[in-house]
Write a structure and sequence with these properties.
Shape: globular
Number of helices: 3
Strand order of the largest sheet: 1-2-3
Distance between the termini: 44 Å
Order of helices and strands: HEHEEH
Largest sheet: 3 strands, antiparallel
Oligomer: single chain
């Protein structure tokens, strides 16, 4: 039986893979249905590729944290921090 993977483990694995890919930019996108469901598609533009890496159906509140973990300092100035 396959082992269950929790959200934190999945996020860590994705972030680790994207760090190796050399992310240079992020795009957050959603459809009307995705907005209603509270999910976004996060696309990483990588240095060595035209397609980038798409991560569909991330929770809206988790996507920025994943992007920041995978490629620190790209989004930092755009993230609002609450004291």
């Amino acid at each position: 039986m396959p082992r269950q993977v929790d959200h934190d483990e999945r996020r860590t694995s994705i972030a680790r893979a994207l760090r190796r890919a050399g992310v240079v930019a992020w795009t957050f996108g959603s459809s009307p249905f995705g907005r209603r469901a509270g999910v976004v598609t996060l696309t990483a533009a990588v240095a060595a590729g035209e397609q980038g890496c798409r991560i569909p159906d991330l929770a809206e509140d988790e996507a920025p944290a994943l992007a920041e973990a995978a490629a620190p300092r790209i989004l930092t100035e755009f993230l609002s921090r609450t004291p």
